[in-house]
């Protein structure tokens, strides 16, 4: 066995630390340049299609390896000149070296490719990605790890695939008011002698600083994620934060005692103000609590929801399901246009937000339940709820097959699929197709400029027999 392994090792056409000159053939879905040496695949950071680069081989595996650019011999005409290395290296903005136009077509192609390869639907129309006008400084939420470096509390971002912190103050894709607040809060906590969490030893105190800022309201929430509940001088610290940052309406301590990569723990304690912020979306007001999901790019989320509503061709007779509803943003945005909205969501706090949001906006024809979408959909099917339109907006892993079964049993005219992961959407639309729903068209919307994340909306219609 070991002989076989040794032999294959010897057969690699490249060796570690050796230099090679290669031409980049394609861009991986993670934004890495792809090259081949005698059929062996190399992934190369900061390298774009058609570029010719001199690289050093850094890592070799059985199927592919990684290399680092030493010199660009020929540059792509689509290279964005002033891209910052640390933004590529941290994965904050792994496409920021590619012109925005090309980022948009890259995303459109990603969707076309998965529909072809996974769903076997090569003929579905995938429209050009809807762009953001100013594609930077858009994130309304930041989750920033804290570490002790040279005796100082330091904020920044992890190097890709690692937990090595690269110090950063300008995060480029975040609301600049959030960037400033992070530095300010870090300095206040340093003055109070707050200790950074040490991941390896699982000791220390402050793990993350999370900030949310309403795009329209400018209301700010600060969440300090700590390893232990006991927070020395918490009230005093909250007072100083509030004084230095007048937009802050909510300061929360979130306790995460586990040794885990999951950022937030289960318990929250309000240190100052309210337990939520409010913001506007398509003219309605939404309350957003600490644990609730909220799209990070408000301007583009409005376009996304608009596309979803247009696809749905809503009328007053429609009964709508808003599945994976979060704080109810989709269902409540369209409640005026339809007869009734039924929504469900797994996070209890978000469901409460959705119910409150219906009330705040004077909406009386929306029902939101807490629970797993796949379970509640079956329950509604048994109760003979008859939706005409079903919106789904699941997390990256996509839909549960039994959710698709229940939906098809209810025979809605249209299913509008909002996806943050085209690969799982492609898998799911194939299941829908087997049950008589045809994918008519797909519209990508750029919710995450400068990153490789792709968001899109697909319209499925029921084929009449
Ligand atoms: N539609 C909302 C939220 C979309 S994010 C918006 O646009 O803001 C996906 C949501 O699905 C999250 O709120 C997450 O908590 C929820 N979720 C994840 N798994 C779920 C499941 N099995 N059942 C119901 N909701 C789920």
TrEMBL record:
Residues 13-71 form the TRAM domain. The active site is at 420 (nucleophile), 420. S-adenosyl-L-methionine binds at residues 295, 324, 345, 393. Gene3D superfamilies: 2.40.50.1070, Nucleic acid-binding proteins, Vaccinia Virus protein VP39. CDD domains: AdoMet_MTases. Coiled coil: none annotated. Keywords: Methyltransferase, S-adenosyl-L-methionine, Transferase. Its EC number is 2.1.1.-. This is 23S rRNA (Uracil-5-)-methyltransferase RumA. It comes from Enterococcus italicus (strain DSM 15952 / CCUG 50447 / LMG 22039 / TP 1.5).
